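chain below, 236 aa
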Amino acid sequence: MRLLSWNIHKGIGGRDRRYSLARITDCIEAENPDLICLQEVDRLVHRSGHDDQPRLLARYFRGHSVFQPVVRVGGGGYGNLVLSRWPVASRHRISLRHGARKPRGAQLLLVESPEGLLHLVNTHLGLAERERRAQVDRLLGHMLFRSADPHPTLVVGDFNDWRDSLGRERFATFGFRQVTSPASRYRTFPAWLALGALDKVFVRGKIEVRHARVVRTSLAKTASDHLPVVVDFHLR
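prediction:
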């Protein structure tokens, strides 16, 4: 099974500032993932031509789609999106907003994969270190998250964790292993000259990770300001 996680920056290129959802879909399609976890997905916003990106992406990939609006922009907004080749048994979304800072959120899904139920979490954390720590604590301690404890769990997304500290300081306490380690091998931002390993994958339970990598194609480097992360795995 293959998962792709990517902050698509609303489909706006990091260097040329050109909006093109086609570059995003072409890059994703080239990787042929079964599960697609996206952050910063626009819906009805002027900068992206008022496109309903969740609807367009769901139509393109013809799978099951779950969207979480997080930040309002004019009459629309942007948020997190999961596209799945397989049915979704349950779906929840929780707010990770911290004080007066920009809203953040997480999607919690139980996916009916061919190898069994998978607890999949897609999130995008804040810019401040204290904020991120509070958000991880809220996520991992949340009743809806804990209700899926018996199932193998994947937590993915843009963690904005420049110091790469959340894995050892927070996730390890809850029994998670960081797949995207060491950070030097998983740098994703900025896409054209990646210095920070901001996009991460954590696993817990009976998950066997076969391979994890950053997509560094020329297309990926122009389509967004982040690079995608791809993980191949099985449920044991």
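Residues 2-235 form a domain with the Deoxyribonuclease I; Chain A fold (CATH 3.60.10.10). The chain has one domain: 2-235.
thats it, cya
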